[in-house]
Amino acid sequence: MSVVITGAAGFLGNRLARNLAKRGTKVVLCDQVAPSVPPGCRALVGPLSDTLGAAITKGTTHVVHLAAVVSTGAEQDFDLGYRVNVDGLTRTLERCRKVCARPPIFVFASSLAVFGATKDADDDTPCTPLNSYGTQKAVGELLVNDYSRKGFVDGRSLRLPTIAIRPGAPNAAASGFASSILREPLANKRAVCPMAASTQLWLASPRSALRSLEHALDVDGSAFGAYRCVNAPGVTVSVEEMLCALERHGGDQGLVDFKMDPAVAAIVGTWPARFTTARAEHMGFPAADSLEDMILNHIEDELTTKF
What we know:
Blueprint: E1 2-6, H1 11-22, E2 26-31, E3 42-45, H2 48-55, E4 62-65, H3 71-76, H4 78-99, E5 105-111, E6 120-121, H5 132-149, E7 154-160, E8 162-163, H6 177-186, E9 191-193, E10 200-204, H7 206-218, E11 229-231, E12 235-238, H8 239-248, E13 256-258, H9 262-268, E14 274-275, H10 278-282, H11 291-303
Parallel strand pairs: 1-2, 1-4, 2-3, 4-5, 5-7, 6-14, 7-11, 8-10, 9-13
Antiparallel strand pairs: 10-12
Helix pairs in contact: 1-7, 2-4, 4-5, 6-8
């Protein structure tokens, strides 16, 4: 098993690399910034267009494509979003098609943002994105499916929920507040919530997302059926429920300031908050962590060692 991970300096990519390395897997980590490199693995640093040639070779068996410009960034910089989220994916698929000895298993991190103007979604809900990021991810799903149909890759697109609690500093994701309203108060810092307390979100913990990505690498591609895409497991929670859970685990919800942001609402407010994940369950994808476990996981992974 020889795995290439793009976007490997991000927290999901780096944790996935560590998990795979523990299984004895050879991993090539690609990113524009230097990632942490697990023992026995190697990193290629630079623009994806410059590193793909050395990363994906005849012997590559698996590719996990995580490299992306996130929601707000893609909305604010139209050209950059398409260059990274569509052109970058196309280049990666083309490299697989041209050089791999066998069609590699190709996992593409899609997003719930492919949906819009619907409160509920299942695996067969039409993609109706209402922002550039969601559109780019929907295009990506179609590309992965078509390259799979032609036998160039063994693709599988995974529509990930909003991830909470993300470690580290806030990023440019419109949904980043879902992490910050928990992460910052747990560290006794202030946070801003740009949406109402009644807002519902579809969430997955980092551990849940990693379990889904690893399962996507291992599952038989034929289980996806005609369309190589599945909604990853998650849970529906409201901002109010998140803040109540924060209090139960020692955080002060008084540190969260509500300041409505129409730009965030225009993106996150279009995403469904309730999903049916019957296909994922049938395919053996692990169930998502509860809200309580999201917080406990973060305390264990990010805070315990600091005190």
